[in-house]
Amino acid sequence: MSVFNPSRCLLAALALAISVTAFAAPAVDFNRDVRPLLSDNCFACHGPDTAKIKGGLRLDLRDAALAPAKSGKKAIVPGKPNDSELVRRIHSTDADDLMPPPETHKSLTAVQRELLARWIEQGAVYQGHWAYQVPVRPSAPNPPLAIDHLINQPLKAAGIQPVPEASRRDLARRLHLDLLGLPPSPKDVEEFASDTSPDAYPRLVERILASPHFGERMAIGWLDVVRFADTIGYHSDNPRNIWPYRDYVIRAFNGNKPFDVFTREQLAGDLLPNAGTEQLVGSAFNRLLLTTEEGGAQPKDYEARYLTDRVRAVGAVWLGQTTGCAQCHDHKFDPFSTRDFYALGAFFADVKEAIIGRREDGMFVTDNQQAAELQRRREVLKGVQALYDGPQPALADAFSRWERLLSDAIAMDDRWTRMAPESAASSGDATLKVQPDRSVLASGKKPDTDTYTLRFTNAPAQLAGLRIEVLPDDSLPSKGPGRAGNGNFVLTEVVARVERAGAPPRTLSFSIARATHEQTTFAENNPYRAWTPASAIDQDTMGSSPGWAVLPDAGKPHQLLLGLARPAQLAPGDVLVVELQQRHGNGAHTLGKFRVSAASNPDAVASPAALPPPTELADVLRIAPSQRDDAQRKRLMDAFKKQAPELASSRALLDDARKSVADYEASLPRCIVTERGEPRTVRVLPRGNWMVETGDVMQPTLPVALSSGYKAPPRKLNRLDLDDWLLAPENPLTTRVVMNRLWKQFFGAGLSKVLDDLGAQGEPPSNPALLDWLACEFRDSGWNMKHMVRLIVNSQAYRRSSVAPRNLVARDPDNRLFARQSRWRIDAELVRDNALALAGLLVRDVGGPSVRPYQPDGYWENLNFPQRGYDASNGPGQYRRGLYTWWQRSFVHPSMLAFDAPTREECAADRSRSNIPQQALVLLNDPSYVEAAKAFAARILRDAPGDDVARIRWAWNQALQRQPSAAELETLSSLLQRQRADYRADTESARAFVATGQWKAPAGIDPADLAAWTDVARALLNLHETITRS
Amino acid sequence: MDPRTEFLVAHAQNQTRRVFLGRASQGVGALALASLLRPGLIHAAAPAPKDRWPGVVQPHHFAPKAKRVIWMSMAGGPSHLETWDPKPKLAEMHGKPMPESFTKGKQIAQLQGQKLTCYGPQIPFKAFKNGIEICSLFPHVGSVLDRICLVRSMTSEAINHDPAHMFMNTGSQIAGRPSMGSWVTYGLGTEAQDLPGFVVLTSLGRGGQNQPIAARQWASGFLPSRFQGVHLRGKGDPVLYLGNPPGVSRDRQGRVIEAVNSLNAQHDAVVDDPEIGARITQYEMAFQMQASVPGLMDVSAEPAKTLELYGCKPGDGSFASNCLLARRLAERGVRFIQLYHKDWDHHGGVKQGVEFKAQEIDRACMALITDLEQRDMLRDTLLVWAGEFGRTPMSQGGDGRDHHNAGFSVWLAGGGVRGGSVYGATDELGYSAVENPIDVHDLHATLLRLLGIEHTRLSVKFQGLDARLTGIAGRVIPDIMA
Q1: How many CB atoms lie within 10 A of CB A2?
Q2: Which of A218, A823, B40, B275 is least surrounded by Cβ atoms within 10 Å, i.e. has the fewest?
Q3: Which ipTM value was assigned to this complex?
């Protein structure tokens, strides 16, 4: 399938054409011509995946290919195509015999068959795969000339004349968009155009490289490939604290951090000696993957997902290898085995993290000033805490009083027996469930009035009183104890009777009612002027509405004590029936959780009701003071201090100090970073199945074949050792991968077009010598990124025009030889930046928390757990560059998505560049672009001189840094006049139109005029040329 | 009379008139409307053929049985035990421990490490058309079972919602793969003039267990963005950014676009860049969509009988409304229509949960089948009803069921499907698919086959592999096909 990758065929054809012109006898080059054919057509059954070898034949290794196969025949006999079984089989007319077999839907063309035969005739010379050979610096003149030398040589050989240098305007625009992602101002262009000094261009390059926006531009590609995003990705896709990592990347490019250091900090910043904030924030790289909070997700499953995610990331970011297939089987095309896969994953087994659930808040990322302030506030807290914790001799008496009160309450409580009802029924069909602690919890139906009937078979033989505890519970509104929305209830009447078989029921009458608290609010219409305990035993003589209630103390326990007029005697078999009537009848003021106790001794209701302390405290209080240990004494003292009125001001001080620290902490940036934990056990998972736990346990080990020639230290390896290998001179991949991606930023495509796969299934570089030269220079310069950028953009090749004669385009349609420059629509973020810059709205601050541009209502409606609204940023936050946009993985901002911004769920080395109707809808209708057009229009009206024509010229020059042609001018003039006439006849629409967005045009501009000019500005912002780098 | 019969009778009476009207309304489509509104953009009415994606499958690998797909995604994981798979033995075992022989070595989600207790079907089953037994809550579906092939032996590899949706949609649990709708439009192109080839609609259930659905479920992955599903929304702009800015009439917008296209054409004359021609076409397409999509979404002009058949009111955002919209999209040539209906995640209260769902979908499914049939479109429209997985025969929390992927039910209807049949079976407790088990790749392979595509031949080079919807697996299941 070559629909999207026709370049390989074209390239092969082109390469052949070049070979034909360059040499008398066409020499076949294994890596360029043969390996792609074998890989594509044969390796699936005759390649590195040892489990899938058919017929005992491997074609990826020369020795194996030359040896007799299982059939005894030799696939390849060097120099003798006619004796080679391979040649016979690819030419076979018998479908059973033909290679590749028809059922694979693969087939070779006549040219390809001839090529393979010729290769065998020429000796069947193998070469190692190009990307696995350590790059050797090709002979070329010294740096400023090397790139052009290496590009011009093949052009000369092919007889191609490169196009001339682009115009000064094009060069200025190209440099600004490529290096900063922002358009130049007309002044920038004019200055450069009129600078006749020979070093005008390199000086412009230096000026631009020094801009703080350089790091922002460079960061975009890196953030794609490492999959940076603000949310976790899976399922609920909740936020996590990670944006400081984005700023770390921007800083690294701006400060020209050597790439080896950059690599080391990201993979292993936490393991570096003296790791500081910078290194730790860099190590957030290991936390960028997708994680889940889904209930029911299985840790083993996700542990395996995280491991594979990280291996794929190392493959994508540094190795340019598609490691993903090796999760289940040895790689079919490249020397990367399943064991390599899990051994590479084992390097990350020590990354401390929750497998399932919310990410931690992460470390504080502070500058010196913030760190000092945080320290200061913590010191204050420490001081206040020490004072509060210290001894309080003056309060000895108060402490004793408090202790006695509690002891009394415990003694009171001891007189009560908590009873579990044998049955609990609701007249209103609420569900009443008896809990293990003998309390009753209501749920389900919630009628306005209810009567709970409780039957007890375990009441004491003598009954002097009843106690009803009402208890808070998390399942209740406002934690209860009632079921009303505010947690309240109204217990209107308590009725008790004793039932005995064969006798009429005996009704018991109450004479005492006490409670720990009674409600006095909302009592205007209550005959008692309060919600008193007494109203619960008045036999409703004052009506059924009044009763006992507890506002404002909802959410806490309370007690109601009821004393019988005369103690009752119960015989075995008697049933005590207690009815709790709740007839208030307003908004389900019924009981949510309660417990009934009985007392035999009338003393139990003789004194005021008091709540006993919590069990832990009660247990300590029951111990004689001299017998209490230090911990018990401290527990008691802490509880005392928490309530002592004498300490109210100390407590307030402490609260303030705590709040001061907490508030300040909440204002500080945080970032989840790498912290080392106990390494998880990593096993090979057969066929990737995480449920099979019989695979070999893997230690961190470098991929065997890829690291051949490299000596790792003979001990258990860690992430620093992985860094060492990735950056070692013996590693053939890292430098090429990074330079190949960098090339794309400046020429629109990599030297090898497939940025994420330098393996056998990728594309051999169109100019291998150039890629190797770049790779060597990158390492030898001390991994100096700016140096490489400088070299590339100063080359003649970079400076060529992107307009070329048709015959040149036809000869090299994909521009693989760089006889001209390429043109492409700028990246999603830059489309936005460009519009805001032209509007004069762009806020050029660097770094900070992610921001929220306007977004259509309801775009997040399919997010859940929790449901989320979207509040667009106010003020400056609304006008930040695109790369600061909140990156919601499952719903990336729709205008970014329309322009091919990746979701960053997976590492994305490359972005597609589509051209779809949604892009038109975004540029025409997204309020961000309408607002930008309005602000641009206001600039035109304010800053541009003269009449309509002069103003259009000015605006055109702002947007495109060139003058319009007469026809272009006429098109916009005509648009302006027609829109103006139209809006003047309909000023209401004009007003509505220019009300779009937060930004208000200065007073005094006629709305119809502003609306008409806004449409002119919209036209300019929508032009293909405006969003194109050429 | 039940709604189906009523609709059929009314339809028979009006057939002649309807056919005429149907043709007429197709004739004066939104396209023509756009050019009527903007005579200056007449050339926009017929997109340049170079930009109409013709599809890479040319000609079809097989004679296609279906031209388009309506895929009903029941998000959350419907219980097969309260819908399509009768299990009397499970009812007998209700409350008893789940025999370990059924569960050993299988993935379990939230019930990990808990005591596993059999939980009998909560709603009686009943035989409907062709004697096929389904849950009695679905009489309307029951009345069209002769058009349906019920698959009771579906399996999936994933057991959590998000990966399971990804697996069902893309054949992979790793993000970044194209959704099946993207594959199909990539393969076959679209017949829609002014609509995307792959359209997604979503609806909520009233039970409140509305699982999140990520946009990646309809993303085009490594295929170009033009193949991504476009989410038509019930509220706000049906397509994001479809509406003009406030105060901008269609005329005003048209003039801006005219100027943009004219200026782009002038620039093209200087730099000779094919992307500019494409850009001009995209602006024309966008302008057409602005005119045609709101009309498409407005179902108020549908005959009362039709609204009654579906049991929906215009603009109510219900699954039933989306079914009706799906028919309208199908009529307009949209290739792949996916309807998400949420709230099937019944960890608790499965009985009431499925009762709610039945009220929301039973009649709508029947209506869609009936309506398509009356328009002679059922024969070449493939309908699929599927959740991302099923639910456990074991109870969760006393009245619910957990996620379950070892065996569950889906159904197909319409183009090329063997109606009135049942394929495969789970074991007697509804745990594992034991008779003719099929997996997601098989379902995809069969779907592509019905569309005339050999699944092994629809591939794209990605990360060095010939990537396919069916991965390296997938079997076409002949017994599902007519």
Answers
A1: 12
A2: B40
A3: 0.80
